[in-house]
Amino acid sequence: MNENQNKLKIAIVTGGASGIGLAIATEFIRNNIYTIIIGRDKLKLQKAKEKLGELCETITFDLSQLDGIPSLIKQISARHQQIDILVNNAGINMKKEFCEVTDADFMQIIQTNVLSVFSISREVVSTMLPFKSGCILNISSMAAQYGIPKVIAYTAAKSAIDGMTKAMAVELSPKGIRINAIAPGFIYSNMSAKALDSDPERKAKVYSRTPMGYLGEPEDIGTTAAFLVSDAAKYITGVILPVDGGNSIGF
Question: What range does the domain containing 66 cover?
Fold first, then answer.
């Protein structure tokens, strides 16, 4: 890392190689934030790095391996001295009928979407406390705003993220660390478009209850994330902000 990078804010974005995570990393780099993206797929990470350039660093790591998280953050902290921003974006979903979800299925979602978020947040907060500054941004979901069928474990996980966001904000904000969350609505991707096109009833429901009448773009989450971790949002903490075209309040 050169001297110029040493003066930049340092961010970690988990699941930063594609989709919403990549959009957030792209916006951070546009705002001159040195961004470390963590993911499981080395090839995806390499492609993201090619797109994002020299302000991007990639780390291949499976965040469900909780035992490795403390040493991962120690290494990052040793290399960069200060971690200013953590975005907990990595997550997995599973669509299954309620009675078909096994204990192992449920635990797998909780492990990745809740336990790893807690573990990496704890380690990063430990590095932020001496500086009395920092921002953590969690990625929630519409699943925590209202009931969605066939995603029971994911719903439980994202509801836990909302609760953790508030509890962390109350405990850590007096120590200079702000915690917020974004709850994305239906965001356009090849995967979401394919899923909706194959289920016309679901597609009609999504559009009819979204007052703005169209799907969001990953960039909509990226720009919101950049705002929430910036000094422009210095008096905002403990917020779970829907970015959903009004979907969560739609009739």
Answer: 3-187+218-242
